[in-house]
Amino acid sequence: MKSIGVFDSGVGGLTVVKELIRQLPNENIVYFGDTARVPYGIKSKETVIRFSIENILFLLGHDVKLICVACNTVSSFALPVIKNHFRVPIVGVLNPGVREAVYATQNKRIGVIGTKGTIKSRAYELEIKHLDPKVKVTAVACPLFVPFVEEGWLSGDVVMKVANHYLKPLKDAGVDTLILGCTHYPVLKSVIREVMGNGVTLIDSAKQVAIEVKKILSQEGALNKGKKGKLDFFVSDNPEWFSELAERFLGKIVKNAKKVNSV
Amino acid sequence: MKSIGVFDSGVGGLTVVKELIRQLPNENIVYFGDTARVPYGIKSKETVIRFSIENILFLLGHDVKLICVACNTVSSFALPVIKNHFRVPIVGVLNPGVREAVYATQNKRIGVIGTKGTIKSRAYELEIKHLDPKVKVTAVACPLFVPFVEEGWLSGDVVMKVANHYLKPLKDAGVDTLILGCTHYPVLKSVIREVMGNGVTLIDSAKQVAIEVKKILSQEGALNKGKKGKLDFFVSDNPEWFSELAERFLGKIVKNAKKVNSV
Predict the structure, then answer these.
(1) Same domain, A144 and A48
(2) Which residues of B fall within a CB distance of 8 Å from A35?
(3) Half-sphere exposure of A86 (CA within 13 A, CB side)
(4) Hey, are the CB atoms on A158 and B162 less than 8 Å from each other?
(5) Cβ contact (<8 Å) for B37 and A35?
(6) Active site residues of A
(7) B28 near B230, Cβ under 8 Å?
């Protein structure tokens, strides 16, 4: 029984795994977190592509039928290149979120938040414009959000102040829809909600990604039927740190993360 | 004319380079910043040792007569191992800072702040106890300080609140001497000074490291005489990002950072 391969620079991709488990409970999932080289969000396009190819080769060694890139930086920088390289279907987190946002916006003003790499790539902006050229896009990098999430600063004065600072241009622009363009950000949803107000729709692409994965596997007749799928977690460093943080993203404890030296 | 090799996970080591230039203006310096895999502070001992060996091999390819490990995480985790592996003299940032702190303390209460890796290693504590078993050591990890420095949050409410939070155990312990056990932290010196008060001596090991380097080169008759030394900067990723940040650490602009794919 083949598996769905998922990779991310670290733990963030677990927000996508959570949704895959919910929507596709019979699938086996093999996850790889590149914790030896985390984070990717501050690194160059060339380096992110190189790391991504190594991660995909690792997953291909584990009999996967589809690969889900559960990282916005990789999806922004590397997806067109890696889709060309490999025969296995590869699903990113960018397009599904964009489609939902373009569908959701009423006033044609969409905001995007992400890492420096994601925002610098302008991938979200280009994809939104491709779907609807009339939409005005405001994109802002929020580089402290990832360390806040990983250090557990999820509420309180400090994170509210930083969130107010980062999100001000989006409020000023009057966006009615905001794409959480980094797999860490759903963990800060309540802070982002409080700053942006209830009138703004927050788009967390994990749900849409799982729908896309289901669609592709269904078209290929590759959906697993029958018994509950199993989960395997591999990391390039620090399985203890990964396991500790996993609960925050996945909503459950990960006990069996295995360290590999392959990348 | 052989060079002094210096490496760090990224830009932090430039605070040490600044002091080397000041004390040893005639020396050539070759710097390597592992910006493709930065940061090291959250990674395991095993991984930090592996990365360090690769960085040293890179520097050995550039005709160095001494290697300065300008990174506290590496100095804490890897120094005993790598000193055993290589014939070139290797100077870390830990011992020089410890010696100065033990010399400076009056009340025999020393504080240490650093990355998670550095604090977890207990290397500072063991080294201090080795020099003076009567000293009481309080060690605290300050994981948000590195992202604050790299994102330019160097003053104001947010960083003061986080500093107050992190430094409280050190104030409670009544330390009269505080080791800034991460090469990024001197950039936050004024914030740390404000929280700790003027009665506490802040130890920034860069100065002592340069003294140590000078002593070793002098003993070996390997000091350069004559003309002003030259500086070469190599990084494993993002030379633009490195150049942009360099001024904050080095006090001057770095124009010639070169990207290498060797690690």
Answers:
(1) no
(2) 43
(3) 24
(4) yes
(5) no
(6) 71, 182
(7) yes
Assess whether B101 and B146 both reside in one domain.
yes
Smallest CA–CA distance, residue B160 to chain A, in Å, is 10
Residue reference for tokens 């290697």 = B67
Q: Which amino acid is at B36?
A: A
By CB atoms closer than 10 A (0-12, 13-18, 19+), residue B156 is exposed
Contacts of A48 (CB under 8 A, 6+ apart): A40, A73, A74, A77, A78, A117
| Pair (A240, A194) in one structural domain | no
Judge contact between A126 and A84, C-beta under 8 A. Answer: no
CA distance A140 to A120: 9
Catalytic: which of B59, B67, B71, B137? B71
Q: A20 is written with which tokens?
A: 């895959």
How many Cβ contacts (< 8 angstroms) between chains A and B? 56
Reduced to 3 states (helix: H, G, I; strand: E, B; else coil), residue A113 is strand
Instruction: Tell whether B198 and B99 lie within a shared domain.
Output: yes
How far is the alpha carbon of A26 from chain B, nearest alpha carbon, in Å? 34
How many distinct structural domains can be found in chain A?
2
Q: What single string gives the DSSP state of each residue in B139-153? A: EEE-TTHHHHHHHT-
Verify whether the Cβ–Cβ distance B158 to A153 is below 8 Å.
Answer: no
Domain of residue B78, residue span: 3-92+207-259
Cβ–Cβ < 8 Å for A4, A30: yes
CATH number, domain at A78?
3.40.50.1860
Rounded Cα distance between B105 and A238, Å, is: 36
Rounded-to-10 torsion of CA A97, A102, A108, A110: 0
Question: Distance from CA of residue A119 to its chain's centroid?
Answer: 14
Residues β-bridged to residue A137: A110
pLDDT in tens, chain B (263 residues): 899 999 999 999 999 999 999 999 999 999 999 999 999 999 999 999 999 999 999 999 999 999 999 999 999 999 999 999 999 999 999 999 999 999 999 999 999 999 999 999 999 999 999 999 999 999 999 999 999 999 999 999 999 999 999 999 999 999 999 999 999 999 999 999 999 999 999 999 899 999 999 999 999 999 998 899 999 999 999 999 999 899 989 988 898 899 998 65
Answer with the one of A205, A221, A250 that is the final residue of a domain: A205
Edge to edge, the sheet with strand B3-8 lists: B90-91, B64-69, B3-8, B28-33, B231-235, B258-259
> Cβ A38–B42 below 8 Å, yes or no?
yes
